[in-house]
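Handoff note, outgoing to incoming analyst
You'll be picking up this chain. Sequence as last confirmed:
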Amino acid sequence: VSDINFDGVLFIRNNVKGSVVSFNGHNEVKSTRGSNVYARNITIKAGSTYSGSTQGGGGSNESGSTVFTFGIANTDKVLTIEKEAVVELYPGSTGTNYAQNAVYGFSKIDIGKNATFIAKGKRPMLRTEHVASNAVVYAQPGSTVDIQTTEAIEGVSFSYGIDYTFDHVNYLNLESQNKSKYSFMFAYRTSYLTVFGGTMSVWNKELNSDEMPPSKTWDFETFKLNNFTNNTNMGTVESDSITLKNEFGTINNYNRIS
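Most recent structure output, in case you need it:
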């Protein structure tokens, strides 16, 4: 589909194994009682834009809670954001149910070179029950990734397991702003976060990161958070920067990493 402007209920349902829903051009989709798209694979084509929002309102995966829904099947279910595409997802929220997400049910999110992925809302932005293996979030060089939750006690993601790789991205921002959260990001199964190249700043969880300077900043070539799960095990740090490795501590100490 191309150059869509939609304001209504569930826009597309195509939950068929192997199927792909692709968007070209400039697209804006607002849905009320359903997700924007419920499909096995979704692709935003190179140079295209997609702005999606939902009304929010419940625990069902199609209930107007989640923008992109991939369902519960343990097959390949991929969100592909091709080079220089821009995707902005803003899920609504009614109540505190965690099933009100930007993306649900994926096996992989692939963010292309110089592409942009923005997801902002009150609940966990990324959620998946894909159990065949850990899901994957991979951001290619030059991309922009901005994922924020303002209220979720689970953190920016809530999953069986997600392995994240941010490879020389242009901009990375992860925010889990609830000061009473029990995890910055939550996984039932050991997961990994890897960042290649750049500068990392962190804000202690009691600070307002919009108003205060970062608590610490480090330069590095590699940063790896290994074997994290949830509030009781937030992993171990590896880095070529000895200072970063020694000072980072636990990710749960922070409300923003950028």
